[in-house]
Specification:
The chain has one domain: TIM Barrel. It is globular, with a radius of gyration of 17 Å. An eight-stranded parallel barrel has the order 1-2-3-4-5-6-7-8, surrounded by five helices. It has eleven helices and eight strands.
């Protein structure tokens, strides 16, 4: 059985001091006697702070059940790439995951599928687990292009990679129209698309390998709706934006999923 993974993507929020405060509060929840079932690995807990706060958060949670991830990387070990962060730097500061291909980077910063393919390869080379984001616009959804577009994003980003990628890959289905809008796909809609993504993985790498890959849903996930998504057979977690900025609401989601999977 795939262990669900709940990941908070903080985007461009929180200073190092605020990250430490969040970490302390989350760890205090985890240490409560009533919360021990979470420590039995029913849910994987991941937080992706901005680069400036990542070292502080990773240090505060070192040796705990809380993992740290980066929000992006540049696909080189080092070099003259002003303003960028390498996979080696992320790894050295305590990151074990990295988000790749978030729609905000695709749309605002013009990241291409070819660049994302390089980033995934770089993450794997340096021992980081990639969270690959895919998702369609509202216009594409209305034209019935969701399945073909998202499968195409998978194919391009994973080009040249063998079945071993399935050992560490996480996919996040994030319909662009549901990110930060208050709108969200229904659990049934999300399940339908995610099942098609898993089908592509099975066709490409084989059913056994596809069964290893955890596929998250992201897009206005909240404490009150997270359990509905995780009850679906192919949805293995959530990539959480705004509701992951407060330790209390993130904790509520962790509790809801742990209870569902208990």
């Amino acid at each position: 059985m795939r262990k669900p993974i709940l990941a908070a993507n903080w985007k461009m929020y929180k200073t190092a001091a605020e990250a430490k405060e969040f970490a302390d509060q989350l760890l205090s929840y985890l240490q409560e006697q009533s919360s021990q079932y979470l420590l039995q690995e029913q849910v994987e807990i991941l937080v992706c702070p901005p680069f400036t706060a990542l070292p502080a958060f990773a240090a505060a949670t070192k040796g705990t059940a809380v993992a740290t991830g980066g929000q992006n990387l540049y696909p080189r070990k080092e070099g003259a790439f002003t303003g960028e962060v390498s996979p080696l730097m992320l790894k050295a500061e305590g990151a074990s995951y990295v988000i790749i291909g978030h729609s905000e980077r695709r749309q605002i910063l013009g990241e291409t599928d070819e660049l994302l393919n390089e980033k995934i390869k770089a993450a794997l080379e340096y021992g980081l687990k990639p969270i690959l984001c895919v998702g369609e616009t509202l216009e594409q959804r209305r034209r019935g292009e969701t399945a073909a577009f998202c499968r195409g994003q998978l194919a391009a980003a994973l080009s040249g990679l063998g079945p071993e990628v399935c050992d560490t890959l996480v996919v996040a289905y994030e319909p662009i129209w549901a990110i930060g809008t208050g709108e969200s796909a229904s659990p049934q809609d999300a399940q339908e698309t995610i099942a098609l993504l898993r089908q592509w993985l099975a066709e490409t790498y084989g059913p056994d390998e596809a069964a290893k890959v955890r596929i998250q849903y992201g897009g206005s996930v909240k404490p009150e709706n997270v359990a509905g998504y995780l009850a679906m057979p192919d949805i293995d977690g959530a990539l959480i934006g705004g509701a992951g900025l407060q330790a209390a609401s993130f904790w509520q989601m962790l509790q809801a999923v742990a209870a569902l999977k208990a």
